[in-house]
């Protein structure tokens, strides 16, 4: 199916996508270095967060003075770095991944060059559903300002539910890959379990009375939910 859903760093990105990104994405030299290292050397470089989505998320954090962030899906650390740059000195970014090998190998050598920002990042290794459940069990519900969901797609409904619980009123959730290159709009493509899970998450968010939301064609699709 024809589609102009794309991350701007993809070589053949649609000119309108490229134009929007050129007028949105702002990266520090460290972010540029991490992006280059990830796309050149890390396995599955296409998992890297789209810079336009990361900048958009930073604007939310900085606009409402967000301090505590949930970053679900670390990979090499691009989203964690973006949030750590946006929160104040006493801010905290919990970044979750089933396996932090790529973060340690490609991310840490670059991120650690800026110790002040690096110190705000708290890596949590293991299945993110379990790690989020642990935070809830620890009594941290309602204490986070911002969440970014960008890990295994079939767990998205669970991640969204747990993020709504962990966010304070007024907090914001960004759900990445909400359009899956446009595939969610094609019923045939929804036979794939990951696409079906994203489609289900979009329905859940749209119908959720606990949040206000908008599904945007930004990056690979960004569903924004504002907790009431
Ligand atoms: C798309 S990448 C994250 C990209 C990153 N947010 C960025 O901005 O570059 C998805 C990550 O989710 C992780 N992942 C997969 N299954 C997971 C699970 N069950 N729990 C936590 N992380 C998981 C993968 O190891 C991978 O690093």
UniProtKB/TrEMBL annotation:
Q: Which InterPro entries match?
A: Cation-dep_OMT (IPR050362), SAM-dependent_MTases_sf (IPR029063), SAM_O-MeTrfase (IPR002935)
Task: Give the UniProt keywords, A-Z.
Answer: Methyltransferase, S-adenosyl-L-methionine, Transferase
Q: Which Pfam families match?
A: Methyltransf_3 (PF01596)
Query: Which superkingdom?
Result: Eukaryota
Gene3D superfamilies recorded: Vaccinia Virus protein VP39
Keyword Glycoprotein recorded:
no
Instruction: Say if the entry is tagged with keyword Methyltransferase.
Output: yes
Q: Which CDD domains match?
A: AdoMet_MTases
**Tell me, what is an example of a GO biological process annotation in this record?**
methylation
Regarding protein family, the annotation reads: Belongs to the class I-like SAM-binding methyltransferase superfamily. Cation-dependent O-methyltransferase family.
Q: Which PANTHER family match?
A: O-METHYLTRANSFERASE, O-METHYLTRANSFERASE-RELATED
Protein's recorded name: O-methyltransferase
């Amino acid at each position: 199916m024809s589609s102009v859903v794309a991350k701007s760093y993809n070589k053949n990105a649609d000119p309108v996508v490229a134009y929007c990104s050129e007028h949105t994405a702002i990266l520090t030299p460290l972010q540029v270095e991490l992006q280059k290292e990830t796309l050149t050397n890390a396995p599955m470089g296409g998992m890297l967060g789209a810079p336009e989505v990361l900048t958009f998320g930073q604007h939310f954090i900085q606009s409402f003075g967000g301090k505590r962030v949930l970053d679900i899906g670390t990979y090499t650390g691009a989203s964690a770095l973006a949030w750590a740059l946006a929160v104040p000195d006493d801010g905290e970014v919990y970044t979750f991944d089933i396996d932090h090998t790529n973060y340690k190998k490609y991310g840490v050598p670059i991120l650690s060059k800026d110790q002040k920002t690096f110190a705000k990042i708290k890596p949590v290794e293991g299945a993110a559903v379990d790690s989020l459940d642990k935070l809830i069990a620890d009594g941290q519900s309602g204490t986070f300002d911002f969440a970014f969901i960008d890990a295994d797609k079939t767990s998205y409904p669970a991640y969204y539910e747990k993020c709504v619980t962990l966010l304070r009123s007024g907090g914001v959730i960004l759900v990445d890959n909400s359009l899956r290159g446009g595939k969610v709009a094609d019923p045939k493509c929804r036979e794939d379990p990951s696409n079906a899970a994203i489609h289900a998450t979009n329905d859940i968010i749209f119908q959720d009375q606990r949040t206000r939301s908008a599904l945007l064609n930004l990056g690979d699709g960004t569903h924004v939910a504002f907790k009431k």
